[in-house]
């Protein structure tokens, strides 16, 4: 009797509970996907490269080919237009709303913005003036040394500590640019010095901006920076123009160039700043670095095609070294290895899916490399044949127009 009682005391009915004790996730529910961007990232990259190249080629064409030899006026006009456009965007759009988070006071503006603006103005003036003497291709090769100049200025101002390993990395860039300079066919010392001065001013500006942005309160995107810097730079450039170029100019020069040409030039330059804002928001530092290298290469090619600027084999070799050093300096060894590994996997997958196209790309690349290397060694066409061809074409065009 006692055993039955003990057995029955241990057996209890378990009540089934229909409702769960803890909240559960409905497996049938559809997970919300992050919103997809309507415009892919490569479109922003292509627009940025196109606008950046267009500004440089446009400036070269105005200053050199159209013989409008007033770089200070052109720079001042760009800054006045940028000032007007940023003020308009600040009042009627939301693109510049982040400026409200910047604790900008009159004292900060005078002590930080104005000095940076002064170097910004000088870099623009020297940069445009260099187009009067040097080819676009050679200027782009010299611009590869900008990270080196920024590093040296940062060490001089005490912004970053001195590092021998970093110096060894950037020395590859300098070595490549020296080779490219030796190979420059149309080397002009005045233009070379002007471009180096422009790079020095630009490096100082970037180092000062880095110091300013080291505080989280002063984080600014390029468009907000232009909103603050453009008025100060336009004022300083205007004063310089009054003393150096105003007495040389006349309204006839402006009308000969064309008001529409000036308006289009300033519009493209401003749209470049807008494109940079969207590009930074959609891409990584890796994509920006590689896109910048691609842009420089395309600009060199455009200089050869549009302006017929000669590029020697020695120049191409030196510039290749400089670009390799630039990519290694900005990305670092570990990230560069990852990029190479990803590229090899992508290239292998592409070869499996499109074997014929892969072979055509390889053959085309080899032929292009042979043309680039062996092209400078080919005999040049005699000048009398060039003159005859130009005269014949001009005659045919004239008869067709008549």
Number of strands: 0
* Helical percentage: over 70%
Helix and strand pattern: HHHHHHHHHHHHHHHH
Mean pLDDT: 80
Termini gap: 130 Å
The number of helical runs is: 16
Structural class: mainly alpha
Give the low-confidence spans. none
Percent of residues in β-strands: under 5%
Largest sheet: none
Oligomeric state, counting identical vs distinct chains: single chain
Q: How many structural units, i.e. domains? A: 1
Please give the radius of gyration in angstroms.
Answer: 30 Å
Global outline: globular
Organism: Trichodelitschia bisporula
Keywords: Membrane, Transmembrane, Transmembrane helix
Membrane topology: Multi-pass membrane protein
Subcellular location: Endoplasmic reticulum membrane
Molecular structure report:
This is TPT-domain-containing protein. One of its GO terms (cellular component) is endoplasmic reticulum membrane. It comes from Trichodelitschia bisporula. Belongs to the TPT transporter family. SLC35D subfamily. The chain is globular and about 60 Å long. The protein has 402 residues and is mainly alpha-helical. 74% of the residues lie in helices and 0% in strands. The mean pLDDT is 80. It has one domain. The longest helix is centred in the first third of the chain and has 25 residues. The protein is built from 16 helices and no strands. Helix 4 runs antiparallel to helix 8.
Summarize the structure.
Involved in the import of GDP-mannose from the cytoplasm into the Golgi lumen. This protein has helices at residues 2-10, 41-65, 71-92, 106-129, 136-143, 146-157, 164-182, 189-213, 222-244, 251-257, 259-282, 285-306, 313-331, 333-353, 355-374, 383-401.
């Amino acid at each position: 009797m006692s055993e039955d009682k003990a057995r029955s005391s241990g057996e209890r009915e378990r009540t089934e509970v229909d409702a769960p004790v803890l909240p559960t996730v409905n497996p049938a529910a559809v997970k919300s996907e992050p919103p997809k961007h309507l415009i892919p990232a490569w479109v922003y990259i292509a627009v940025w490269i196109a606008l950046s190249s267009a500004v440089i080629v446009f400036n070269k064409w105005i200053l050199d080919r159209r013989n409008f030899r007033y770089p200070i006026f052109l720079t001042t006009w760009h800054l006045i237009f940028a000032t007007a456009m940023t003020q308009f965007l600040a009042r009627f759009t939301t693109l510049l709303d982040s400026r409200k988070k910047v604790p900008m006071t009159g004292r900060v503006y005078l002590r930080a913005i104005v000095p940076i603006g002064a170097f910004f103005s000088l870099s623009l003036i020297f940069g445009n003036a260099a187009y009067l003497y040097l080819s676009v291709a050679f200027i782009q090769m010299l611009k590869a040394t900008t990270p080196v100049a920024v590093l040296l200025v940062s060490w001089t101002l005490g912004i970053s500590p001195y590092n021998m390993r970093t110096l060894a990395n950037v020395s590859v860039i300098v070595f490549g640019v020296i080779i490219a300079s030796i190979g420059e066919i149309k080397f002009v010392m005045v233009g070379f010095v002007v471009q180096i001065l422009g790079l020095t001013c630009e490096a100082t500006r970037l180092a000062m901006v880095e110091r300013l942005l080291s505080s989280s309160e002063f984080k600014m995107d390029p468009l907000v920076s232009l909103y603050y810097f453009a008025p100060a730079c336009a004022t300083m450039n205007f004063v310089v123009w009054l003393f150096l170029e105003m007495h040389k100019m006349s309204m006839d020069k402006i009308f000969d160039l064309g008001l529409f040409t000036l308006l289009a030039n300033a519009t493209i330059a401003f749209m470049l700043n807008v494109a940079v804002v969207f590009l930074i928001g959609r891409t990584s530092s890796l994509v920006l670095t590689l896109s910048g290298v691609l842009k420089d290469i395309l600009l060199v090619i455009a200089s050869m095609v549009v302006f017929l600027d000669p590029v020697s084999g020695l120049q191409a070799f030196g510039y290749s070294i400089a670009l390799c050093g630039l990519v290694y300096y900005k990305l670092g060894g570990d990230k560069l290895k990852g990029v190479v590994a990803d590229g090899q996997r992508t290239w292998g997958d592409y070869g499996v899916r499109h074997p014929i196209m892969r072979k055509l790309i390889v053959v085309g690349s080899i032929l292009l490399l042979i043309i680039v290397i062996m092209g400078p060694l080919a005999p040049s066409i005699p000048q009398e044949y060039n003159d005859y061809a130009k005269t014949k074409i001009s005659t045919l065009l004239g008869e067709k127009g008549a």
